Every structure is written in structure tokens, then in C-alpha cells.
Amino acid sequence: MQVGEGVHRLTPGVCNFYLIEDGGKLALVDAGAPRDWDLLVQTLPALGRRLEDLEAVLISHAHSDHTGFAERARTTAGAPVWIHQADAAVAKGAKPGKNDGKARSYLLRVEFYRTLFSLTRRGATKLIPIREVSTFGDGEMLEVPGRPRVVHAPGHTPGSAALLLEGRRVLLTGDVLATRNPLTGRVGRRSCRRVSTATPRRRLGHSTSWTGSRLTSSCPAMASPGPKAPPRPRGWPEQPAPPSVLRR
Ligand SMILES: [Zn+2]
Fold this sequence. Notes:
This protein has helices at 37-46, 64-67, 70-77, 88-91, 110-121, 207-210, 244-247; strands at residues 2-4, 7-10, 17-22, 25-29, 54-58, 81-84, 99-100, 134-136, 149-152, 161-165, 170-172, 178-180, 187-190, 197-198, 214-216. By secondary structure, it is an alpha/beta fold.
């Protein structure tokens, strides 16, 4: 589905990824889950493109449902993989740092198991290390198709980043923003910070960068933002994080 000028969303249900077209070349933003490779390969002919047109893989953060098949894309298509420098070590297989939150409150949610089943079936319970990565930093404009600008937005992971396509008014947010919580099914614009938060907690930054941009997230339903989430009543606890199987 085209969600912006030359921006295509590929979705297996939980965790979307995107293809950016630019002058006949492609950049992939996030790499789904490992077994989502087939979805990429099947989509390319429909766009009149081939695997050889893939020039870069940009990863929004080092979780297994975003790094997915990146290593396969790197070795098969020869596309370099990019990620923020603060998530590079984990993307290459290092153990992630501590994560805030507890799993207990999600265990009674049907949606939790639906998401867990979907990710397990697609091989996303374990991060496949990416042997070679290139790194980017905040504010950099990447010389890859679409020329996205990096907006570092730590919190969900230390290296979480959004990618801004300035001329197209599209912002690809990874898990920085979502309109649906994949563990509860709740709809509403929200940060995935509560689903997984790096320790120590860090606030999102760069709020002015979001203004006026079309928001498109790797979480479901972000392409057409849903209603604003109701404020959490005073005294209600924050939702804890899911088990590590979903965080990596
Ligand atoms: Zn994530």
C-alpha cells in the first residue's frame, strides 16, 4: 500500500516495514521479522522493481521485529544496513541493556498472545545478528534513496530513530510512535515507550521535527493516525513492558 509519495507499506499484521522509491532505486525502512523476507520478494515485481534495486536497509531500532531479515538483505542484495550508533552493537548480536517494566499485566490480554503467536511464527523471537552495519547519528541526511534525515528519539531503545522524508512530508517513526498497542489492542496515538523502555529512561526529543509531517509508523494503523488516546487517569499505573521475547 502506498502511504506517501513513493513510500510503500508492507505489513504482515504486526510490525510494518516500508519501501522508499527514488529514481528507480529503493531503500527499505525496517526489515520486519526474519520470515517476512518472502513478502518483500513478492512485493518488488508489483512495484516494477527487483532485489538489485535495493540500495540500503535502514533500521529504526535494534529489536528483532525490525531487524528481521536485514542480514539476509545485506548478503543477498548487497544492500548496506544502517542503524543509529547507539543500537549498533545490539544489532550485531550484543546483549541489550536492561529494560524497565514487568510482563505481568499483559498476560491476561488476548492481544498479547495474538501478537506473540504472530511474531513467533515469523521467527521474531530471536534477533538475527547483522554482521556489518553502517551507523548514523542525529540530524544526518543519508545519501540513500529518499535522502531521509535522522531524528534520534531515544526511549524505546537507546538508538531509536525516526526518519524524515522532508520533501514528501513523511516521517517513519519505527516504534517511537504508534496508534495501536500490539499487546493490548488499544487504539490511540501513543509512544511505544511503555511497551519497552531502555534503562535509564530517556525522554523523546525533537518534538518540533514532527510538526506538520505525515506520520507513518512501523506499528499498525499509524499510516492513518487514529483518535487521540484518552489521558491516563491520575493514579493509574503505567503499563509495564512485555517479556524479553517481544522486546528484542
Ligand atoms: Zn521495538
